Amino acid sequence: MLKTFPTGGVHPPENKLTAGIPIEYLPVPEKVVIPMSQHIGAPANPLVAKGDNVKIGQLIAEGKGFVSANIHSPVSGKVSKIDTAADSSGLKQPAVFIDVEGDEWVEGIDRGKELVRDIKLSSEEIVKKCFESGIVGMGGATFPSHIKLNIPSGKKCDVLIINGVECEPYLTSDHRLMLEKGEEILVGVSILMKALKVEKAMIGIENNKPDAISHLTTLAASFAGISVHPLKVKYPQGAEKQLVKALVKREVPSGRLPIDVGTVVHNAGTAFAVYEAVQKNKPLIERVVTVSGKSLQKPGNYMVRIGTPLSWLLEAAGGIPADTGKIINGGPMMGKAVSNTDAPVVKGMSGIILIPASEAFREVISPCIRCAKCVSVCPLHLEPYLLMTLTEKGMFERAEAEKITDCMECGSCSYTCPAGRPLLDYIRLGKSTVIRLARQKVLK
Amino acid sequence: MSSTILTTIICLSLLAFLSAVILYFVAQKFKVYEDPRIDEVQALLPAANCGGCGFAGCRNLAEAIVNSDSFEGLNCPVGGAAVMEEIATILERTAPVSDPKVAVLKCKGSPEHRPRTSVYDGAADCRIVNSLYIGETDCSYGCLGYGDCVKACTFDAIHIDALTGLPLISDEKCTSCGACVRACPRNLIELRKKAKKDRKIYVACSNCDKGGPARKACRVACIGCGRCQKVCSFDAISIVNNLAYIDAAKCTFCRKCVGECPTNAIIEINFPPAKPKAKSEAEAVQA
Amino acid sequence: MLKVSPSPHIHGKESTRKLMLNVVIALIPALIVSVFYYGIGAIIVTAVSVLSCLLFEFLIQKYILRKPISITDGSALVTGILLAFNLPSNIPVHIIVIGSFVAIVIAKMTFGGLGNNPFNPALVGRVFMLISFPVHMTTWPVPKGLGTGYLDAVTGATPLAILKGGLARGQSMSEIVGQLPTPAQMFLGNIGGSMGEVAAIALLIGFVWLLYKKVITWHIPVSVIGSIAIFTGILWLVNPEKNADPLFHILAGGVLLGAIYMATDYVTSPMVPKAMLLYGCGIGIITVVIRVYGAYPEGVSFAILIMNAFVPLMNAYIKPKRFGEEVKHG
After folding, report:
1. Residues B213, B148 within the same domain
2. In which domain, by residue range, is B166 found?
3. Residue B275 confidence (pLDDT)
4. In angstroms, rounded to a whole number, what is the distance separating the alpha carbons of residues B87 and B83?
5. Each residue of A80-89: pLDDT tens digit?
6. Which residue among A237, B121, B208, C249 is the one 20 to 30 A from A196 at the CA level?
7. Where does the pLDDT of residue B274 fall: very low under 50, low under 70, confident under 90, or very high at 90 and above?
8. Per-residue pLDDT at B285 exceeds 80
9. Same domain flag for B200 and B286
10. Which residues of C touch B136 (CB under 8 A)?
């Protein structure tokens, strides 16, 4: 029996079209836009001014807030302006605009391809390096990694969990990274283990990536304490709480973090970024983005600099096909629809999926037949039908009592609803309202 | 036969009597004293339970009014001055002075003025669209058109106009309860002082962007140029964040600003047709 | 222009209509068996019931609710078939139409249509007919094969009626057993009874189909049948001369039809597995109480309707164990 979380979950068509396509390094565009908000906290403060010359890897913005991260220049050139730029949802965010000139790197960055296995830094230095290098969770949540490496006093971590699940359909960026940069990822995992002072790390990979599982299992033999675990193909296997449950059989309590059950979860892509930062002194300035879609000419996994416009990336993948109905930033289950293709690539962008118009539609909404399918697929054992009704009726206190804030927005309920009801749309609204009301209460 | 009927009648009567006695004593025992004036005040209120007063329902407002010494902060916007007057008579106080108001929408971005740039395809709820993205146009301030105000209105005063895709507020039905003001996630509805003949002049735009982007997103956006402010002789217009605002308390309905606005963002409603000269001027500016 | 919507952006392609059609497919074996035993009457009763259910739903939606017509969602079709399956195959047309009226108009549409009715429409219709037309509803045709005409069928009693009648006359089980059909006859449906409830084998084939297609879960059918088996089993062990054995109770009457198709009706059954088990056990126990101690020989319909009334209460108070609610690890 493969490991998995016990109840709930769905199995959408995998559509991993780009699983066999090696990572391709994309040329640098002429202009890049670096949003100051690429992490979940407050936007970073720009350190450069209009007209400044910047080098690749230079710190251009400083994360001041508690969950903010530093931002480095992914290109060399001149700052053309500091203004607002529309993100992929069309909303304006502060950003630094850079016109690319030349290819000058900040000194001290090791651009060599050879593997560096020896970890010279101490635990504290590693955490500091992660903070300085602006590393955030690469799976899409963009939670600054150095915070997860700082274990709060009174808590203990005994196992590091590496998320190589990639349960979203279409996405293959972590899969390719594990195949092509396996050793680097394992060194990255060892670094994280050293920072957390744990002896054990478990890498969870969904069973639809047998090549990555066997590759990493072979390599892991020479790394102490790291083991690779195949997991059942079931969405949302890659959700933090579900992954912890599947691998170490511990349930993260409602409203708490994995550290409360002695685990820390990091993404495989984050492990690679940590390797580059710690061993190669290279800050987070590029990432792998899966560009996929059924009618896309040249789908693939592209290594792109942060700040590259999506339109540039899509051009490299053969242009936007005429039948495109929807473009998604991230996977089709949890990703955000893109309304602005001039938006830049950001740290948390794992994929760009183009859905043809023939598939890009919502089902017609019909009355709830109370089939309880949403209840049976909810991995957090909530009652989505009830939460939607409570939100529609504005009964937020009751919704809070029914644990609406536990919802992680995986979308299994909306995916499975035979009546095509927009369950998650309303639950998300209810959840944000409940959180807002709770904050107002605290302020009062 | 007759004895059966008789027994039945006696039994039922006894049962009814017994129940009445029990109910009487129970009612006495559990009686809660309430100021009888609360009922009287409640009877005067419109019983719409709209929440416009800030309380959950009319009963709660009645309690608050009776239990308070003054009318401070307590007002039924639906019933208006007339109802407050009557309540004041019962309670032997003086009624507060409040101006009748009416809700207006500070956006006129119909599709012809504000081109669509994407198609929304999710649950029809403005709050959901607003938290998801910029909306179907390039204006991050304008009306989303999914009718949260329509759903919030208990007086059937708001309907979405099929042509413009914007809510139309009926002056006759609007009670200025403010439910729509609270429902709009983009804060586009304002309660403005009612003027004679339901005349209105206001800036029908909420776009705080600079002129260029605002105009690009919508042809009738306020670009914050300040021409209306300069032409106003009563100091009624202020410009904050690239957006003009006409203070209803100071506005004299002279209509100078309406013709001056280069984007037609200022609306005039229920006025007789403008003099030919003023009209041609406005057209020239628009062209 | 690009479309934008909140996630998820893909859908599982499951629909109300597909679920309903799967229920219809699951009911086909039972329909075939009943045509095989009762002839043309089975087809006429089913057709009249289905058509009148669809017609009533259409008329209400079009002229009273003025809502979009949704009779193609299959729910009225399922109600029609289930109602027919609860009737004898020789019942006159006008009674069927009245039953359909009660089922669709009173039990379903007055509450707001699909998804809002507290009671199973087909059962409300059936119970209304049972009380209003007791003679027609309890005059069961004896299975005579395909060639049987519609209204001229030879009538006989159901196994449960034979049992009840025998016990009422003071006969002991060993005396009654001779008059009862064998388990094999009951399994194949060669007995008197309502059209759809006679052949256990056909109903079980449908059950397997519903489970395979994941239309229903095992909880309700298994808990209904299980609780009936346990309860009647205890009674039988205590006094085998006064009580029939559990196998007889499960195969006779509407237990299988009720447990598999009627109690599992989405709208009127609980949402959470724990509550489903409680609901199923309730149905089982009430059924046996009515059969053994009540006036009617059969009690499945009443039992389901009674438990339907408790469903809102169960949905409000029986909650799934939330993820992370009980922490085992410190």
Report:
1. no
2. 103-191
3. 61
4. 6
5. 999 999 999 9
6. A237
7. low
8. no
9. yes
10. 4
pLDDT digit string, tens, across residues A30-58 = 999 999 999 888 899 999 999 999 999 99
Q: Is there a contact between A432 and B125 if contact means CB atoms under 8 Å apart?
A: no
Nearest Cβ partner of C7 from A251, A379, A424? A424
Instruction: Count interface pairs A-C at CB distance under 8 A.
Output: 163
Q: Residue B279 pLDDT more than 70?
A: no
Is B116 part of a structural domain of the chain? yes
Range B72-82 average pLDDT: 81
Contact A425 B131 (CB under 8 A): no
pLDDT exceeds cutoff 50 at B287: no
B287/B200 same-domain check: yes
CATH number at residue B242: 3.30.70.20
pLDDT of C329: 47
Q: What is the mean pLDDT of residues A357-366?
A: 91
- Minimum mean pLDDT among A405-414, B85-94, C28-37: which range? B85-94
Q: Which domains does chain A have, with CATH numbers?
A: 23-109+283-356 (3.10.20.600), 123-280 (3.40.50.11540), 373-443 (no CATH)
User: What pLDDT is recorded for position C330?
Assistant: 41
Residue B238 lies inside a defined structural domain of this protein: yes
Answer yes or no: is pLDDT of B277 > 80. Answer: no
* Residue scoring higher pLDDT (B99 or C309): C309
B2 domain residue, yes or no: no
If asked whether residues B225 and B170 sit together in one domain, one would say no
Q: Could you tell me if C281 and C288 are in contact, meaning their C-beta atoms sit under 8 angstroms apart?
A: no
Most C CBs within 10 Å, among A361, A369, A391, to test the C interface: A369
Interchain pair C10, A335: CB under 8 A: no
The letter for the amino acid at C190 is N
Assess: ipTM above 0.85: yes
What is the rounded distance in angstroms from the CA atom of residue C213 to the CA atom of residue A249? 30
User: Which of A79, A59, A124, A93 minimizes the C-alpha distance to A285?
Assistant: A59
Could you tell me if B187 and B220 lie in one domain? Answer: no
**Partners for B (CB, 8 Å, 3+ pairs)?**
A, C
Rounded mean pLDDT, A60-89: 92
Q: How far is CA C290 from the centre of its chain?
A: 16
Q: Which chains touch A (3+ CB pairs under 8 A)?
A: B, C
* B247 & B279 share domain: yes
- Cβ contact, residue pair B133, A90, below 8 Å: yes
State how far residue C276 is from chain A, nearest Cα, in angstroms.
11
pLDDT at C38: 86
Q: DSSP strand E in chain C: where?
A: 2-4, 140-141, 155-156
Question: Which of B142, B167, B191 corresponds to the end of one domain?
Answer: B191
Is B4 a member of any domain? no
Domain-terminating residue out of B191, B213, B245 = B191
The dihedral of CA C243, C246, C247, C252: what is its sign?
Answer: positive
d(CA C77, CA A7): 33
Q: Supply angle C-alpha B246, B249, B251, rounded to 5.
A: 50
Point out the residues of chain C with pLDDT beneath 70.
Answer: 152-153, 326-330
Kindly state whether residues B131 and B217 are assigned to the same domain: no
Quick one: B202 and B286 in the same domain?
Answer: yes
- What pLDDT, on the 0 to 100 scale, is given for residue B176? 85
Listed residue (A258, A257, A211, A249) closest to A230, CA to CA: A211
**What pLDDT digit, counting tens, does each position of A135-184 carry?**
999 887 889 999 999 988 889 999 999 999 999 999 999 999 999 999 99
Residues in a beta bridge with A144: A136
Q: How many residues are present in chain A?
A: 444
